[in-house]
Amino acid sequence: MPPQLPRSPYDTVRGLVYFPRMLDKIRLHAQGVLTECYHKHLGIDFDGRCLNLLHVGYADVRDRVLFGLSDEQVLDWCYENGHRLTDQELETWNGFMTKRGWRDEASERIAFRLKEAGLEHLDRQAVTMFDFIDLDEGRTPPDFSRWEPPRLREGQPPA
Predict the structure, then answer these.
(1) What is the DSSP code string of 17-65?
(2) CB-based burial of residue 151 (10 Å sphere; 0-12 exposed, 13-18 middle, 19+ buried)?
(3) Cβ atoms < 10 Å from Cβ of 40
(4) Quick one: 136 and 75 in the same domain?
(5) In this predicted model, what pLDDT tens digit does every residue of 128-139 receive, in sequence order?
(6) What residues contact residue 26 under an 8 Å CB cut-off, 6+ apart?
(7) Do 98 and 131 touch, CB atoms closer than 8 A?
(8) pTM for the full model?
(9) Which one, of 145, 147, 110, lies nearest residue 128 by Cα?
(10) Dihedral, CA atoms, 91, 44, 81, 17, nearest 10 degrees?
(11) Domain ends where: 79, 99, 119?
């Protein structure tokens, strides 16, 4: 079976971004079809941030996923055995994660990763790390241009 990719980091379970991607990586790795470059990041980096937010360990989540629980059931387990997110925490997490790399210290990392992947020509589409991940995996990131200030929209003359 050829290597497979996890879902987009923008995908959600009960409104929580990134969580289903982490679970996909666990399932695909166990099946032996997770693309090799993801192996060294299992349980750390964005996975680690998500696990820390929920106050649960990677091995515990992995065990529930491999037992066959659904995404929703795994999240319920995290809430029952770790930390149940408030609406405000969920909003803060989603806001931070979906904007990581936009006007922060990770911006330079996006430029590096685009060059490394041979995707420099997509620079204007990769505003965030989530955007880069989607582009790198052959998906088109969501169009957030409706939230751009009019002065920054492409094709607008300078004021």
Answers:
(1) ESHHHHHHHHHHHHHT-B-GGGGGGTTSTHHHHHHHHHT--HHHHHHHH
(2) exposed
(3) 8
(4) no
(5) 999 999 999 999
(6) 42, 61, 62, 65, 66
(7) no
(8) 0.89
(9) 110
(10) 30
(11) 99
Residue 4's DSSP bridge partners are 34
CA 101 to chain centre: 12
The residues, ordered by sequence, that sit 6+ positions from 141 with a Cβ below 8 Å of its Cβ are 10, 125, 126, 128, 130, 131, 134, 135
Given 74, 99, 124, the domain boundary residue is 99
CB 31, CB 48: distance < 8 Å: no
Domain that holds residue 80: 1-99
Tens of pLDDT, residue by residue over 104-155, are 988 999 999 999 999 999 988 899 999 999 999 999 888 777 766 666 666 5
